[in-house]
């Protein structure tokens, strides 16, 4: 197993999910064209499709065919895009640059950006509800979990609210982890669980996959904080140093760069450890954890 | 059948949906408390529960017990509240007053208002997904239709975008109707259809109910425009004359007050006509159409 095998897999996963997204998103020539352009602008702005890749990797591990997970993977990416659009708004993180391109409200306008996010969120649930390849009860389970991972008190929106409230405030390690388990963690966890649920795995397998994804989500956030503190705007494709500027509590502000790097390494080890009972079959998932850590190297 | 029978029914419907909303919305003492307070502030700001009342009326007509529609009615009210919160934002209609109280972003702040809307939208889908009294395939159908009625190109978000784009522009009657069939109409239509779907009515009954609700939605919007043009801020509980101030195309700006009143009357007649094959059983629904028109008398 080499890194290039994972990178090949990711490229394929991105291609598959992009095709589904393209088929599900409303056309730019249909009215309201401005809204549809905005939805597509942000959805196809060059995201790495980390969550869909994770979902496809878990599907492969659990021997579920792609058809059982590809619409849900697209739904997850819609929810992720919705959250980026709203988080970038002036009233929130006020970001003008994302993946090297103007954010939705800069490229279009604030009202359109708010509505584009709203429409993507609604469409995500429709994508799963309309997924005729999945049994009804599985679709219901996926929709309920996606809604929980998105909203409050256990989802992304709760995490974003806590993150905003923590600005200019000293918070401790427990609070920081709590924020990120929700803000970034909930949707990453759902990406992994959704594939396991679609595959119909045993309860112990589902627990192991949930544990892995929870650690992976934390790792993702720690490395995100490290990237923000150490990389240039050019490399990041988004404004660097925003966290320090907005006095945000991050793994870097709390632990310093070196300690945060150590914590990232430990979190990766914990993620990988939770895959032990899958043996060799989980090698690409381990590789995903390693490559997430390697982002900051 | 008297108007007071409808008003009794509405009061009961509001009480029932409020109890379900209270049980489904996150508690104010749970974190993030500010987010949960904002969600509850806007949900319990004194709305008339028009859509839930319509859903309960159709359920009664179709002999479906309350338990089969009350969670969906609550979900519809969550989606309605989400749309009000986002529409009131400074980047959209910039309203400071709603039902005589400060709007969500005034009472709290913009970021919290955006997130409260987002969280309500996600929770609406969870409410239906978790409705164990309904068969799986009906829940799926309701979720798919609610998502369509919310998003774009056939839902509320599309209507709001078209409405914003029409400001300071002359639009014709066809465009105006198109905007409102989406902005107000889609969710009102879904409120009626959801009860019919939960009851498992025949296709002709579903069509008649859909036709009625479509006309009722238009009537609702025409009377809304009339109220905005003719009533004081005090009576409305929201800033009066906003439409003219923002140069919005409305039924009043397009037709004038007298003609708009006539159109409202005709629309009510058409709504009532579509109920003919239900006979006397639909009397309260007819009364709802009459009372919607009577708002402007």
How would you describe what is shown here?
2 copies of one chain form a homodimer. With 297 residues, chain A is an all-alpha fold. Chain A has a single domain, classed as Farnesyl Diphosphate Synthase, CATH 1.10.600. Chain A has 14 helices and 2 strands, in the order ααααββαααααααααα. Chain A has a two-stranded antiparallel sheet with strand order 1-2. In chain A, strand 1 and strand 2 form a beta hairpin. In chain A, helix 1 crosses helix 4 and helix 7 packs antiparallel against helix 9.
Strands of the widest sheet of chain A, in order across it, are 1-2
How many helices of chain A? The count is: 14
State the end-to-end CA separation of chain A.
20 Å
List unreliable stretches of 5+ residues of chain A. Answer: none
Helix content of chain A: over 70%
Average per-residue pLDDT of chain A, rounded, comes to 94
CATH class of chain A: Mainly Alpha
What is the strand content of chain A?
under 5%
**What is the CATH fold-level name of chain A?**
Farnesyl Diphosphate Synthase
Largest interface: A-B, 50 and 50 residues
Count up the domains of chain A.
1
Second CATH tier, the architecture of chain A: Orthogonal Bundle
* Helix/sheet category of chain A: mainly alpha
